[in-house]
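Two proteins were folded this term; both appear here.
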Amino acid sequence: MLQATFKLCAGSSYRHVRNMKGLRHQAVLAIGQELNRRALGGPTPSAWINQVRRRSSLLGSRLEDTLYSDQELAYINQGEEAMQKALGILSSQEGWKKENQQANGDKVLSKVVPDVGKVFRLEVVVDQPMERLYEELVERMEAMGEWNPNVKEIKVLQKIGKDTVITHELAAESAGNLVGPRDFVSVRCAKRRGSTCVLAGMATQFGQMPEQKGVIRAEHGPTCMVLHPLAGSPSKTKLTWLLSIDLKGWLPKTIINKVLSQTQVDFANHLRKHLESSPAPEARC
């Protein structure tokens, strides 16, 4: 049965597999199901089954790639690149200077990173489980403008696979009109690594969202948020936000530094207030 399935899906029907998305998925599913059935039927899979498992894994990887256009693959790679760069910056503990320290323990640090510029690092503990934060920051991203006054609107322009989205964000003007209206077009990538969630992104180009009159197109990146349960208190979440922004325009560095560090502090306060005042979404089946 397995030999016939593999030959049908990966061999004699290869031209059809290459051209039909539905059949591609059926091929991978059929091979996977048969391998699992064989593996469960005996104490250990045979060498031949292991060989086919490796081949089917490679086939599945290649078929997955063909599900996306070259542009979509470029966006996926760009999101993953942003994540790796941002995590690399966060992993370095040297050179951070304190920008802002709140009485509740929230703090903003900064450092200058070669080829990136000045970056800001928010570290806070939120009295909510990680799943709740993930729900708000990823799955309900477009609703952020409802509770964060620094954001007028976030719109998902395109979703690519299960991890990557292209977004347009319209930021509100800063207090006192120190910074005029800005918008951002970004590729964002969300990944889970064990008990940790990483949300990363950076500026990108998207033809269907050109620059808008009266709004300066600023640029993110690389940036990320890292969420994980607080050690010893799993009902609380440690949130670390790396912020890297080029606001464009003619702005003194002192104003930029003040606005960005305060934006991070305000974000933490608005997020807490929103989570405390709104019920948690019902658990999904």
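Next, the second protein.
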Amino acid sequence: MDIMGPAQGSYGLKAKGEKAVDGKGNEVVLFQPAKDFESTMDKVFTVLEDIVKKVNGAKIEHNKFSISVHFRCVQEEDWANLAEEVQVAMQFFPSLCLTQGRKVLEVRPAIAWDKGKALEYLLNALGLEGRADVFPVYIGDDRTDEDAFKVLNKQRHGLGILVSTAVKETNAQSSLRDPSEVLEFLQRLVSWQQAQASSD
């Protein structure tokens, strides 16, 4: 929900979007489909922060357009109470939705936006959509990444890679076990690209 990239782009590509200046004074392009929710997210963060403070091991993270309540370090017998208090608080914010991930509760604006739509936006904004010389690769480890995998499947062009040690149902075409395998894959991809460039 918070996409930022360099205004100049790379390889002569210039992204389309709202121009701004980042913290270092560089001109950037922003795309924030949930921009109108910024003050609401600040309010709900304050409310949830008070709840989280009372639960030993719970942590809260403000990600500008989403809020994560982590309960990985919370005693198992306290999980239900924490979730219930968060759900009660969320009733006062009907424009937001609450979802649960792996030992995390996530609060997001209730808008039609997901990682698949973000991928489509990036390909379009960079002028890369439908180009035969561009092969999108999307790597993800969460169920929210499934929307991006579906986009690549629908386009029949690109590669979705799930990162997981467990065998699970996915829309990704391939899988890697952990971040070290992701690093190795990316290094091999760069080496292959460099070899292709030097042979041309």
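The first strand starts at residue 3 and ends at 6. The helical segments are 38-53, 79-90, 115-125, 146-155, 179-199. These notes refer to the second protein only.
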